[in-house]
Amino acid sequence: MLSGGRDFPRIDVGQSIEHPHTRHRIVFRRTAASTGGEAVVIEAHLGPGSRGLGPQAHPQQEVRIQVVHGTLAFRVGRRQISLGVGERLTVPAGVTHTYWNAGSEPAHFVAEIRPALDFEALLERHFRQEDR
């Protein structure tokens, strides 16, 4: 148990999950357990034209994103934003957002989610539901 007695799902640093149809892949770089619940850091990889998670909002979590490769589009609230390599975006807690690969080559970004809360479990549920 960490951070005020919370149990965290057993996700290991370096573990990855991948959707078998979309090939959307997430690699866990820092986990709730490794940060004492302070954050989760992931790398997300999307093929050309692939969509990420559907519209979502995290009432108590801020999401900080940096594009590493390719071009990504984000819808944050009512705004649509396109980001290239090295560009950053912060999504405040409670704001609905989604993302997709807007380019013709693979895209890759790093996201830091603070605090961790149940973000890892949310990702696992999402990928399991898409497997059906």
Structure report:
10% of the residues lie in helices and 39% in strands. By secondary structure, it is mainly beta. Strand 1 and strand 2 (25-30) form a beta hairpin.
Q: Characteristics of this structure?
A:
mainly beta, 3-stranded antiparallel sheet, 6-stranded antiparallel sheet, globular, 39% strand, 132 residues, single chain
Q: What is the topological layout?
A:
Layout: E1 16-18, E2 25-30, E3 40-46, E4 62-69, E5 72-76, E6 79-83, E7 88-91, E8 97-101, E9 107-114, H1 119-131
Antiparallel strand pairs: 1-2, 2-3, 3-9, 4-7, 4-9, 5-6, 5-8
Per DSSP, the total helix count is 1
Give the strand order, joined by hyphens, for the main sheet: 1-2-3-9-4-7
Helix content: under 10%
Span from first to last CA? Answer: 32 Å
**Low-confidence segments:** 1-6
The main pleated sheet reads as: 6 strands, antiparallel
Overall body shape: globular
Query: What value does the average pLDDT take?
Result: 87
Report the radius of gyration as a whole number of Å: 14 Å
Order of helices and strands: EEEEEEEEEH
As a percent range, the share of strand residues is 35-45%
Number of strands: 9
Structural class: mainly beta
